[in-house]
Specification:
- The structure is a single chain.
- A hairpin with a 3-residue loop joins strand 2 and strand 3.
- The mean pLDDT is 95.
- Helix content is 31%, strand content 29%.
- The longest helix has 18 residues, at 18-35.
- The chain contains 2 helices and 4 strands; from the N terminus they run βαββαβ.
Length: 93
């Protein structure tokens, strides 16, 4: 399945308390369970006013449905085309 980066505009995201983060994670996991095997949340990055989430999903529609069920925005959904890290500097094996 393809990998996606989801940008969520959430004012104050970077100031969320541990309890708020746990509640958000619980809500997301519940929505994932309802949607089944076509979507998987890998991890999220919190900045001051945005959250960037990495998902593996069948398509953008299931990501939008997850956002609707979870009650949080999906302001931008971008399909990941390549992953690059420092090991790429070493060239092909």
């Amino acid at each position: 399945m393809p990998k996606f980066l989801i940008e969520r505009e959430i004012p104050g995201a970077g100031s969320m308390t541990p309890d708020q983060l746990q509640a958000a994670a619980s809500k997301s996991v519940q929505a994932l369970k309802e949607l089944g095997a076509g979507i998987q949340w890998l991890h999220s990055y919190f900045t001051d006013n945005k959250v960037y989430c990495v998902y593996v999903a069948a398509d953008e529609n299931i990501i939008l449905e997850h956002a609707r069920k979870g009650g949080f925005p999906a302001n931008r959904i971008s399909r990941v085309r390549h992953l690059l890290d420092p090991s790429a500097a070493e060239g092909p094996a």
